[in-house]
Please model this.
Amino acid sequence: MTIYKLLNQFQYKLTSSVSISNTHLSMYKMMAMLVYLCSILVSTTTMFGDPINCMVQAPVPEKMFSSFCYMESSYSYSLPTNSSHYDFSKLTTKPNYYQWVWLLLTLQALLTFLPCLAWKHLEGGKLARLLKNPDPVLIGKFLGCQNKRWYSSQAMSFLFCQLACPIVSMVQVYLMDQFLGGGVLTTSMDTWPPPVMFPKLVKCNMPFIGFGGSVENYSGICTLNYNLLHEKIYMMIIPCYLLLALFSTTHSLLHLFILFLPRLRLQLLKLKAVDLLSNHLLGMKVSFCSYGDFILFMLLSSNMGAEDFSKMMTVWVDKVSDIKEQTKENIHKGSVKASSSVAVCDQQLVYCEVRSK
Model:
């Protein structure tokens, strides 16, 4: 097989995948990837050196002292504002999150990706099965003949995942605030982050058994090299989560309006389908569109071109209008038959009464 054929197969795999996500869920996918890349960056030791480096006097080995201070609590020197000298009189404990930042970021990436993962599981590949034959005419006829509840259960699952997104973002901000010791939301942007939250220089005390068997306390100075990286990462992802929570809240309210306002669904569909917007008579044929059909059409529009989607919508509108006309004719014929049978019964009743007299 030539390289050209391999590239063509690779291109087909990229273009043939069906997208079941909208812009809202795609933003959560990108955010999950960003946070996961940050967790990989934090867990590397070749680019930024060891997470902690300590200096202690003999006879305590520096590696053992560094390992002890990395696991146990230490004290950080506070650095006053507009000063380059550390205040040795004010000591605060080292935050306990330092060893677990990479794990927290990994869990945050998984939690951010959870609505997308849940929607993929609940959707069950129904849209992909529908798009196996990409002919818009056949898709329009199929959807026109089907019940309007064909995609309703998936649409309600989609709405559930949309409403879960702002909750996920708010939970993320709360977890980061608790993990970092508070002050994430209460601190102003001018003074954020607080110096205590990401200390760079700490003092550590370690008991050491000397040559005589007595226990002596040795003190040393340690630098937390990764706190500089942690500071930049959280300065980036905390505003991102806040903006994501704001956008998700607005988007969820919009979906609730779409759920309870059928006219809004029709207007959005007409904006997506060019033929429905240009042909007023064709647009008037669409009197009602269920929420399930609306979600299905929005997902189809992201996987089809504008011309194919307009053609599919035109076929669907014609099919639905034909079914409605046939239903009305059947109802009218049934009423005519019922009235004629009632008239025959009345005539027979009158005839019977005359014979009895």
About this structure: The two ends are 99 Å apart (CA to CA). The chain has two domains: 17-134+150-260, 264-356. Confidence is low (pLDDT under 50) at residues 1-16, 338-356. Residues 264-356 form one domain.
